[in-house]
Design a protein that fits this description.
This protein is of the alpha/beta class. It has 7 helices and 7 strands, in the order H-E-E-H-E-H-E-H-E-H-E-H-E-H. The chain is globular, with a radius of gyration of 17 Å. The chain starts with a helix and ends with a helix. 27% of the residues are buried.
Length: 199
Amino acid sequence: MIFWIFFSIWWYYMPHRMLNVTYDNTGDIDISKLDRNYLILSSHDLPTPEIMIMCNETRKSSKYCNIVAMKTTDDFGSMVDQFFKDFPLITPYNRLDIQKGVKNNMTEKIVEKYKNKENIIMFLHRKSKSRGIYYLLKEHKIPVLIAYIRPENEVKNCNMTSLINQKFNLKYKLLDRYPADKDTPESYMEEIKTILYQN
């Protein structure tokens, strides 16, 4: 139990340091100085450090944050992954769980959190086929921040040993285009991913 408490406190204050990851905000937007709340879309190419960095950013945020997370327990690997998602006893953020094949009412939850002046953080993998962001933004026009997270040196795989001691750059950018009538869900999501994963 004492180790659980220790690692939870560590996760609360500096989760990225568990892999000795460091990062710098290289842009003009500082999450601690935002005067309004946003939907924040983060890259998800290197999931572990990206999640750790954004979890650390929630502690700095001027607005309370909610992280949308996939909840999976289909096989042993996903159960191990879920264990680490569930393990911190205390966090500076709330987690909004999504389960496949279950009605999650996630749009309603996100809109409710936004109306409560809270941030919502979502991770969007470049191979994702999800179209939920399109429908959310088409109907509700929530302001969006893109969170670019890039390693300073090339990382060839997601093995933990390759991620230890890496340095990353983080930059936020406002997204200024909502879905238009000419857009299909697929074309708009491809545009978002192009923006999110541009060099």
